[in-house]
Design brief:
Elements (H helix, E strand, L loop, with lengths): L11 E3 L6 H13 L6 E4 L3 H10 L6 E5 L9 H8 L2 E5 L13 H10 L3 H11 L3 E2 L6 H8 L8 H4 L9 E12 L2 E12 L4 E6 L1
Parallel strand pairs: 1-2, 2-3, 3-4, 4-5, 6-8
Antiparallel strand pairs: 6-7
Length: 205
């Protein structure tokens, strides 16, 4: 905290379910008890890993930051988070513009109905799902537009269009590189995930 020049952090997350996450979480719990962290959570934890963490911890994660967008709707994960009282936080809500998101006909139709932008419709849909959203922009007007997404009142007819947008299965690629006296060796593990775009993680040890 001294190096940061702060008295506390509003939110602190474990970025990936990799390595000694339980040891790391015990340290986070200690910092939380000392009021150095106001809220604590994890990121990119699948339902099974999240359940393990919640049932093995004195202080449960309060947030799980995962990718949520029209093509990655986390249908299986959101009910688990709700049952555990863990708030979903959406990263990449615009899917980095993949799959023609900003020209999608379904989203464009809903946007025209509400006199809103496609970006606002996406954010409004994610908010209606009970998640908070991290939307990135350096453009002041787009920042204001994103904030106004909370004013878009979607109805049930709009939300029934949401499942039409999701994509099929995908690979989660974990690439671990371990250095040895003979150089570096790359180890790759692929696991099928449903509904989310390709995600790659690189670890150096």
């Amino acid at each position: 905290m001294e190096l940061l020049g702060l008295d506390y952090l509003d939110l602190y997350l474990i970025h990936q379910p990799v390595g000694d996450v339980f040891g790391a979480w015990r340290t986070i719990e200690a910092l939380y008890r000392e009021d150095l962290l106001r809220a604590v959570g994890v990121s990119n934890f699948s339902p099974d890993r999240l359940m393990d963490m919640a049932l093995s911890s004195t202080i449960r994660p309060q947030v799980n930051q995962v990718e949520i967008n029209p093509f990655c709707q986390q249908k299986d994960a959101l009910p688990v988070m709700a049952s555990l009282g863990i708030l979903p936080e959406a990263w990449a809500p615009f899917a980095e513009g993949r799959n023609g998101l900003f020209s999608n006909a379904v989203l464009a139709g809903i946007a025209a109905k509400h006199n809103a932008s496609i970006a606002q419709i996406v954010l409004a849909m994610i908010l209606k799902m009970g998640a908070v959203v991290v939307s990135k922009s350096v453009n002041p007007e787009r920042m204001r537009e994103n904030i106004r997404a909370a004013e878009v009142l979607l109805d049930q007819t709009d939300m029934t269009q949401w499942p039409r947008l999701t994509q099929g299965g995908v690979n989660f690629s974990l690439i671990a590189t371990r250095k040895s006296s003979n150089g570096s060796t790359a180890v790759t593990s692929n696991t099928k995930r449903k509904g989310c775009p390709l995600f790659k993680l690189r670890i150096s040890t």
